[in-house]
Amino acid sequence: MLPTKIYHFFWHLGLMLEYMTRAKLITWHTSDPVLRRRRQIKNTRRSALKFLRAFQIQVSVRGKENLAALHGQNYLLIANHVSYTDILVLSSVTELVFITSVEMGANFFLGDITRFGGSLFTDRKKPVSLPHEIKRFARTIAQGFNVVLFPEGTSTNGETVREFRSSLFQVAYEASCPVLPVCVKYHRLDGKPITSDNRDTVCWYGDMDFLPHFWKLLGHRIQVVVSILKPLPHDPKLRRVELSELVHRQLLACYHSFDSPVPETGTNPTKE
Predict the structure, then answer these.
(1) Residue 88: CB partners within 8 Å, gap ≥ 6?
(2) Mean pLDDT, to the nearest integer, of 212-220?
(3) pLDDT tens, 48-93?
(4) CA 4, CA 8: separation in Å to the nearest integer?
(5) H helix runs in 119-169, sequence order
(6) Which CATH architecture best describes the domain 2-271?
(7) Cα distances (angstroms) measured from residue 15 to each of 10, 218, 231
(8) Angle formed by the axes of helices 33-55 and 2-29, to 10°?
(9) What pLDDT is stored for residue 168 in this prediction?
(10) Which of 155, 171, 189, 271 could form a disulfide with 205 if both were Cys (CB 3.0 to 4.6 A apart)?
């Protein structure tokens, strides 16, 4: 197993150098912030497809017709969150801008990745900054981007979908845009169902350090199912808390609906 991990480590190292080189060139040579973000997320998606292959993560996508129904519209994507690999999985489906915390942005390694990926940052410890953040995030959608919110507030152990924080759902009202619920379910690890016994190999949460978890993850084969649910059109009559609860119920039901076996073969976006 050790030679396999070493091989995958250097594979990831090469991909990271490629990603960071492209990202820095984009930053240095693109003065317009909107164009820069557009190039950054294209680079993120291109790299995500390669990283998924290196991580041996196979992605099956359900509900592609729901994504197609939003063609020409920009939206706020709501998803559950269990690991840093969620970013790769969702980016492999379409080009996205992610909302993440300022704590993540301050991280020595992951912070650079998120900044160069065109991410938006929120400071959960300073509620006074929330109205400004909402306007900034809504403006990003108005500029032609699809923005991702993980309303659980942090990554989890994958046991369930935790209650949502509703505050940033206000972005959808400010932007007058639809909301797209997306369920991410890590289903198999090395061909076996993911349970409480092996989930910590995939899930990254709590006080786990990144590098030990990353090393542990290398060399394993992972199957993940992305379920794109029906988009919810902008409805100013629906209160923000009601919208948050509605999306949570939908994602919770979808997350726990995997009682029937998922096919061993699925759509691997790295083949695109």
Answers:
(1) 48, 51, 52, 55, 57
(2) 95
(3) 999 999 999 999 999 999 999 999 999 999 999 999 999 999 999 9
(4) 6
(5) 130-142
(6) 3-Layer(aba) Sandwich (3.40)
(7) 9, 14, 34
(8) 170
(9) 96
(10) 155
